[in-house]
Specification:
Elements (H helix, E strand, L loop, with lengths): L6 E4 L5 H7 L4 E6 L9 H13 L2 E4 L13 H14 L4 E4 L2 E4 L2 E7 L5 H18 L3 E4 L14 H12 L2 E5 H11 L3 H6 L6 E7 L1 E2 L7 E2 L7 H14 L4 E4 L7 H19 L3
Parallel strand pairs: 1-2, 1-12, 2-3, 3-4, 4-7, 7-8, 8-9, 9-12
Antiparallel strand pairs: 5-6, 10-11
Length: 276
């Protein structure tokens, strides 16, 4: 099983050569979306092979629709289990949301109603998927641009209940917390402080679109803003050392700009966790 610590970056095809040939010393691991590599050869298979030789790899999925009502995709889960075993990942992560309806993939990470029934439903499916995959499962908190009616819990209590009932881990996306609190109100530190931080195995930071100041949009296509960096440091001071991923999926800048962000995250990680 690979050891994942420090600062990571998403393995995206446009960044592949730079990651593998010009990686800074602070880059310690890579995260990949298995949907981009399953059943694919050519450049994708070559990229994965080279990446595994260079750095530890973990997986982060986008398609299981754990909060949905469609049947779990058993064939996909078998293929995913084989990939996870081959990679030796310490955990696999996906999102606390739904993204399929009637067998159709919506290609969106859609929020669940913050009810106890939805929490029980998500927990049951997450626990089942964790058993089927044979590795620990971590759930990521998602952005929500509208809140379904009938909420019985807030976001922190909902996530805490799911993690407790399912016996799974938490992938804490600091930018998503910041975006949700800016869009819907609330204190991101207060929210994070009420999460089961002992269950956190990984953190994400990313940029967002703030062109409309009344509605931030999580895009992974902009630079990380100072308040998110500050929230990351505050969070790491409470979780202790956890691997942190810089998410960048589009709007790729010059490689030197991404390296500067990675080095800033590394400095924050060291300062917050006593790593020097």
């Amino acid at each position: 099983m690979v050891r994942v610590e420090g600062v990571g970056l998403g393995l995206r095809a446009p960044l592949g050569d730079a990651i593998l040939e010009e990686a800074p010393a602070c880059l310690r691991w890579l995260e990949l979306a298995p949907e981009n590599f399953l059943r694919r050869g050519g450049r994708y298979r070559e990229l994965l092979t080279r990446a595994r030789e260079r750095l530890p790899v973990v997986t982060h999925g986008v398609s299981l629709s754990l909060g949905g009502t469609d049947e779990l995709p058993r064939a996909e889960l078998r293929e995913l289990r084989a990939l996870l075993r081959d990679l030796g990942v310490p955990w696999h992560s996906d999102h606390a949301c739904f993204g399929r309806v009637g067998g159709a993939a919506l290609h969106e990470l859609l929020p669940l109603p913050l009810t106890r029934a939805a929490a029980r439903h998500l927990a049951a499916r997450a626990a089942r998927v964790q058993d089927l995959l044979g590795v620990p499962l971590a759930l990521e908190n998602v952005t929500a641009y509208a809140r379904p009616d009938g909420a019985e819990l807030d976001e922190a209590d909902f996530l805490a209940e799911v993690v407790r009932e399912a016996g799974v881990r938490l992938l804490l996306d600091v930018n998503n917390v910041y975006v949700n609190c800016r869009n819907h109100g609330g204190d991101p530190r207060e929210l994070i402080g009420r999460l089961p931080l002992e269950a956190v195995v990984q953190l994400h930071v990313a940029g967002h679109d703030a062109s409309d100041p009344t509605l931030l949009i999580d895009t992974h296509a902009e630079a990380v803003v100072d308040p998110v960096f500050e929230l990351l440091e505050w969070t790491l001071e409470r979780t202790g050392p956890r691997p942190v991923l810089l998410e960048r999926d589009d709007g790729f800048p010059e490689w030197s700009e991404l390296v500067a962000e990675l080095e800033r995250i590394d400095a924050i990680h060291r300062r917050a966790t006593g790593g020097g």
